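Students often ask why we bother predicting the structure of a whole assembly rather than each chain alone. The short answer is interfaces. A chain on its own may look different once its partners are present, and contacts between molecules only exist in the joint model. In this exercise we take two input lines together and write out one structure for the complete complex. Read the inputs first and try to guess which parts will touch.
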Amino acid sequence: MSPPVVMAIGAGVSAVGSLLGGQAAMAAGSYQQSIAERNAGVYENKADQALEIGERNVKTFNKAFNKVLASTESAYIGSGVRLSGTPLEILEHNLAEAEIERMNIMYDAKVQNYDFKEQAVMARMQGNLAMFQARSQRTASYLNAAGTLVNVYGTNKLISTQANNQKILTDQMVKHQKSLTNQINTLNEKLNSLNLDNTYKIEKNFGSLLR
Amino acid sequence: MVKIPTFTSEGNPQKTSGVISQIPNISDAATLPYRTLSKQADSIANLGLKFQQQNKNFESQLYKLNKEQEVQEYKIDEKYKTDVINTNNKLENDFKILQLRLDRKTLLKSTINNILPQLNEIKLTASTNSNTLKAKEEYDTSFKQIIENAKLNIDDKVVKQMFEMEVGDLYATESQQVDSYIRKNSITNAKIVLNTDKEKLFHDYINNPSDRPIILQKLFSLNPNAPGIFMEAAMDGILKVPPQLAVQAAQVELFTIEAEKLVDENPKEFLNLLEQGYWKGKILTTNIPKLKDAAIDKARAMDVDFLTTHMPVDPNMDIEDAEVLYKQAISGDFGGDKNKQSIYKNLDDEGKADFITAINQQRSHVRAEISFQQNQEQRKEIDANNELYTDTYGKIVSGELTVSDIDALGFEGKLGVEYKSALKNLIAKREEGTLVSDAGLKLYDQAFKMIMNGDITSVTDKVIPTNDGPKSIMDITGGEDGIGFSQSKELYSLIINRNNEDVMFQKNAFQDFLNSYKEQILGNPLYQKFNTQSESRFFDFSLIMKQAYEQGLKEGKSPYSLLNSSSDDFILKNIAEFIPSDEQLTDELLQSMGVNVPDDENLPPQRKPDQTPEEWMNSDEYKTWENNQ
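Now the answer. The structure tokens for the assembled complex follow.
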């Protein structure tokens, strides 16, 4: 099997693995989101229950206050105090205090309700976060896969280009070598021809002296 | 007092709103894709960087490679240029060196050529010097003097050294020859003296019978105290054999001469002495039968000759008178002459047959003589034709006559017509340029040497090497590449005289003389192979010299006096008229190459010694000449 094919297969396996990892992250994220949704539901129930508890505590207070109020009125009446001026102011004070008490009770209930709602939101948010992370991982896995393929393609291209360049260089070197050889041969031929011409000239003019 | 219940809220809100939630870290998740993207982008950017780096590297390497190639090509080109310059410098140097060598060689050659005639002369002097004891010493002195004089004209030290070496070799060769000549001269002189003495004594012995005892003593005595000539020669170391053998041989020779003389002059006396036993031990026994037969034949022939004189050859006699004498002789009557009748009768059968043959021949001779006398007028006519033919041939060869001139010549009879036809053909050949010249010098020299060496003994010996195989003198006579007729005739003369030492010496000495002046007459050796006229000039020179030499010999002058420059009879009085000037050589060379030589009037003005070529070409004289052109 040729190296490029091996590389292509490796790149394919890596890309698929990366894609599958993305899918797995999405599944895990989805699961985490469902758990967070359930937790959010629990927290919402708890919020509702906190309000109900507050209202029930207000009712309980009301009953108790009403008893206090009745005894007060009775006292007044029993004492022959007219319910004007100060007694009335006291009554009014009691009523105001009672209202404050009720408001305190409801405040705590509402605060708890809010907190649970807040926790529900947080749970949902965590679910969303898990999904977000899963999506990010999936996106990253896509990018990884694509990047791997691009890298492998690029590396392959780099290697083939390098091989091609090397071939061009080698061809060029061979071409140059041939050119040099031809040049040397041509010039040698010329030189030999010149030498022959010179030898002929000497032979023609002084041949008898050379023997 | 009644207590009025009052209600005061004592409770306070217990709860505080809000739940502190830990702030979730979403930045990791939020930035993860971007980080991933960034990381991948980094990788890609790295990859891009690598690409860029790779491209830069590639471009750089390619650039480097191309630059290195340029440098290599430049270096190779530069090396080539340097090599070319070196090669051309070497050629220039070689040319200068070789030119110097050539100049030196030419100077050496011309110096040697110039002294060759003088060396030849002193060799000739030594070889003909009768004073053999001093001949070599005189030769050496003259040789050294010639060399020293020649060296005075050589300025170049190297040429001087080369000349000394060359002269050393030349001396070794020449000196050996001279020694040989002198030694031969010495021996020859002694032998000549011995032979002269012997011939004189033989002559005296034959012609003075009364002095014979003394003569025999002078000839053949082996007594050291009173030696004969052979004993003396043996004591001088001239004889190759012991004196006894030489005396024996001379005795046989002398008595054989005596016997042969007697056989020739008086055969009947020889036969008488033979019967008396006179020849026993004096001549070779094996020669006796031959001499005896010869004496008998001679005696018979003398008788036949004597009887034949009955019919003398007289051109003025009538044919009828001659017939009468013939009939008297053939009948044995001889007009009543008793002596002749007696001789005739004593002839044997062979003698009578010889007589009949002889008298018949005599009859033919007489008739022919009478007939010749009658045709003498006709004969004169033929001779006149021949003389005219020879004279005309010479004029045709020299280009003086045309065909119409031949018709106008006074040839006579049928022979005259044939001569005219042959001479017209000769003119036609001359006009066609196929007339044979006598300038085949190399071939002639070669044949001459081969005759002198004994390689050629006949004009038909096919031993002369040519491009077409070995050829004879007859084969190479005529034709474009052959020798001329006069050369052929000269070689023939040499062959028939090859056993005549005097003639051979004369011819050899003359040939040496010609060869010694050959280089000077041919001109500068550098131009000889291109100059087609140099051989012709030398041939003309050799003809003139030959004519003078032969004329001198006819007048009785010696080869030595004719060929020696110090002699008044020297045949080459003025060599300058035969040596070509540089201008003449240049003209000949140009003509040989087919270039027309301009007239002197058309030549540019001579450049003055202190003028540069530019000054010369800008001078008024040159411009005037140029305008005229």
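Check your guess against this: Chain A touches chain B through 72 residues (CB under 8 Å).
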